[in-house]
């Protein structure tokens, strides 16, 4: 079975380096399933889970946006923040979710603070989902 080298990198350093049979990411244009030999591309990612498949097992990584760069044998994900499930502090994410929800109730949808709270809420929900 052909495989892909996958790297997930953040400003704090590498989060994951490994070899996988398939990588699925949620780009802004939609879900992208990447197999070895994929055509080269760069795409912006949503706040979402990256799914890494190998030998019948699936691993998940939480990413807070960023970009995926695909080459035939290499997938590089550059994200502002990325966590493996074991690294996620669920209590922290639940607190971030509550804070964001309170802010969304206090601000107007066109406010910059409202937009920031929406993104914070998405990051928190994504982390809670992936840690489960
Ligand atoms: P918080 O309000 O809790 O800081 P946030 O969504 O604003 O959440 P980010 O700015 O996305 O946090 O991330 C800042 C750093 O903290 C990153 O290194 C990220 O990996 C880490 N981080 C954020 N939330 C969690 C969490 N629940 N568990 C583990 N690491 C986290």
Structure description:
The protein has 132 residues and is α+β, with helices and mostly antiparallel strands. The chain folds into two domains: 4-83, ATP Synthase, domain 1; 90-131, ATP synthase delta/epsilon subunit, C-terminal domain (Single alpha-helices involved in coiled-coils or other helix-helix interfaces), CATH 1.20.5. The protein has two helices and ten strands; from the N terminus they run ββββββββββαα. The strands form two sheets. A five-stranded mixed sheet has the order 2-1-9-8-5, with no helix packed on it. A five-stranded antiparallel sheet has the order 4-3-6-7-10. α1 (90-106) runs antiparallel to α2 (112-131). The model has no long low-confidence stretch (mean pLDDT 96). The chain binds adenosine-5'-triphosphate (ATP). Adenosine-5'-triphosphate (ATP) binds at residues 12, 64, 81, 83, 87-89, 92-93, 96, 120, 123, 127. The site of adenosine-5'-triphosphate has 13 residues, from α1 and α2. Its main location: membrane. F-type ATPases have 2 components, CF(1) - the catalytic core - and CF(0) - the membrane proton channel. CF(1) has five subunits: alpha(3), beta(3), gamma(1), delta(1), epsilon(1). CF(0) has three main subunits: a, b and c.
